[in-house]
Amino acid sequence: MQSVDSLLPRKVRPDDIIREVRRYLTEPDIELIRRAYVFAMHHHEGQARYSGTPYIEHPIATAYVLALMKMDEKTIATGLLHDTLEDCPNVDRKLITNLFGEEIAALVDGVSKISQMKFDSQEQRQAENFKKILLATAKDIRVLLVKLADRLHNMYTLEYVPREKRGRIARETMEIYVPLAHRLGVQWIKSALEDLSFRYLNPEAYYNLVMKLSRGRKERESYIEEVIGILRNFLAQHNIAVEISGRIKGLHSIYRKMQAQNLSFEEVMDIIAFRIIVTSVAECYEVLGLIHSMWRPIPGRFKDYLALPKANMYQSLHTTVIGPKNERMEVQIRTQEMHRVAELGVAAHWRYKASGNPDRDSRQFDWLRQIMEWHKESDDPRAFLSGLKMDLFSEEVYVFTPKGDVINLPKGATPVDFAYRIHTQVGNTCAGAKINGRMVPLRYELQSGDRVEVTTKKDQKPSRDWLQFVKTATARAKIRSFLKEEELERSLAAGRAMLDKELQKYKQNLSKIEKSGQLDEVAKTLNYKDGQSLLAGLGYGKVSIKYILAEIVGAEHLQEELKESAIDRLLRPLKRKKSGGIKIHGIDDVLFRMAKCCNPVPGEAVVGFVTRGRGITVHTLDCPIAQDQPEERRVEVEWELSASAKMVPTEVTVRIADRKGILAEITTVMNSLEINIDEVHSKHRPDDTVDLQFVLQIRDIDQLTRVLAETRKLKGVLSVERAHH
């Protein structure tokens, strides 16, 4: 097995880049690459990496990765320049444009992080940076390729980064950059990023696998040579010229299979894969038939990505057979062109018009178009980041429209997701669905090969219940947008009626006040954008009618009953004595309750929503239910922590491999952290694992985080999750 560390040299020199470029470009613009190198070297002078090496080594390595991806000279120059805008004080976009042209300047700007803005949290910074990158990628896909090359070298040198940052960087890589590489079809970068992230996220499991694989390395290498010889001789007898290679699967790929099927390393059967490259599509199927005639295929393990390519345009035939010595092994069969696309992805068939924009007709960019469309609907950076991870990481299903067109959607997607993929209006008016000619519920999970037909009605509109089962971020954003608009219209009508009624008591006319512009002036005084926003806020109960009337008719003319705010009267029954726990910004002594769906724990990030008749409901910031609430109801809340704060009952689910004594070990860990166990129940699963469901008395988020982390370390514990309802 080739080590992930051997993919790149320990130190790359500019001549290595030029040598690589000359291998695939006939007349490369070497002068452009040299000028970019000299510029970067000059402006990074005196800067150093965490390892202590000169900073210039990083952009050189980034450019070398781009050369391995067979990119053009301008992209490689961008790799050399990619950090100059962000890290060099004397460099701005105008300077890069003057020296290297607008195209390279736009690429460098697209890759650069947002440094001028202030953010409330690391998560918000991360979300806004990814928004910027994806917006730039929508104009030029090379932005994302440069970013992947940049991240690959950063992961190679992660050991020098301060320990407290490594986990966050590795997690970000696994959650976002790995699926992005997969979406772009750059398989070798995807595999390298996956294994490097695995090394830092779970070092114990990583090095344990490295050790176990090294023990049988010689035997596996000998087996690979034996199988290649058998295949080459057998196919030569049928006059088929082939290229054959064999490899050990990636560390994280093996680990993922062990976790998914609850297997030990010794129980994983097919860790060896073979690749056969032929000259035509017809030969792909011919070789498949010959292999199945020689070795018995495993039922259910054949996949035809020739007839149905993946969304990243990957094509190959996959089969698993019982090979020599009764060993399971995977075989992939493809043409030379398919192999080039499989290795280089978008870079292999990178088709640019004169403007530099990617070919928008390519199916490979469907996912990017969907993200950009969804981005227009989402103004919450945290929801954007959460949805991005969900959409990128999901496995896919392939379904057919009634006309036979193929639509790819995340696994678990429903007819409603399908409807929104076709068109926003089809989604908004979706009333029912037929799968393969049979009526199904809207929450039906689509399966690969399904023929989907959606029925619509003019009077149909999205339901808030749809948010509980749709899978794609695009559908969720469209539904929320519709509901928000509908809520805004209701609030606007209610606010208008309330203010008009009160103004009549003072012989005032709301229409005249609006036409004169007075309402807009009042709105700005009360920190609202305009009169319409003010009326909506009034209808929703976020602003008191007393304050509006005071600005229009004068506070001294207000009738006595309006001396107390309408919102004050609404909240008066909910007032209570302060008991600590939650502080609601701008409202004193109002009843609040903890949402049962997420059951917030003291100290974690929370948000509140006005609940009519029940005060403020407090959710965790990442609670899916909270993300579905109208923005108009949102209020900022925070914890008022004290030594006398109440314990919070919190449900935790621990999935274990059923073995003697493991429950005692788990309870010992919890007792050592001074955690009381209220309840524990067990539930046996079909795969012979057991879910232990605990109800724990938790003091704060730090205590919860510690118990989850310590429990995960126990042998036989497969997962530890906080339960959500």
Give an overview in words.
The chain has 725 residues and is of the alpha+beta class. It has six domains: 4-201, Hypothetical protein af1432; 211-347, 2-Layer Sandwich (Beta Polymerase, domain 2), CATH 3.30.460.10; 363-472, Roll (Ubiquitin-like (UB roll)), CATH 3.10.20; 481-571, no CATH class; 576-640, no CATH class; 648-722, ACT domain (Alpha-Beta Plaits, 2-Layer Sandwich). It contains 29 helices and 21 strands. Strands 1, 2, 3, 4, 5 and 6 form a six-stranded mixed beta sheet that branches. Strands 13-15-14-16 form a four-stranded mixed beta sheet, with no helix packed on it. Helix 8 (122-139) packs across helix 18 (381-393), helix 9 runs antiparallel to helix 10 and helix 17 (366-377) packs parallel to helix 21 (473-504). It is globular and about 100 Å long.
CATH topology of the largest domain: Hypothetical protein af1432
Globular, elongated, flat, extended or rod-shaped: what is the shape? globular
Q: Could you tell me the number of beta strands?
A: 21
Tell me the CATH architecture of the largest domain: Orthogonal Bundle
Any idea how many domains?
A: 6
Structural class: alpha+beta
Helix amount, in percent?
40-55%
Uncertain segments: 114-119, 351-361, 564-580
Main sheet properties: 6 strands, mixed
Q: Write down the Rg.
A: 30 Å
Mean pLDDT comes to 81
CATH superfamily of the largest domain: Hypothetical protein af1432
Cα end-to-end separation: 44 Å
Number of helices: 29
Q: Into which percentage range does the β-strand content fall?
A: 15-25%
Oligomeric form of this entry?
Answer: single chain
So what's the CATH class of the largest domain?
Mainly Alpha
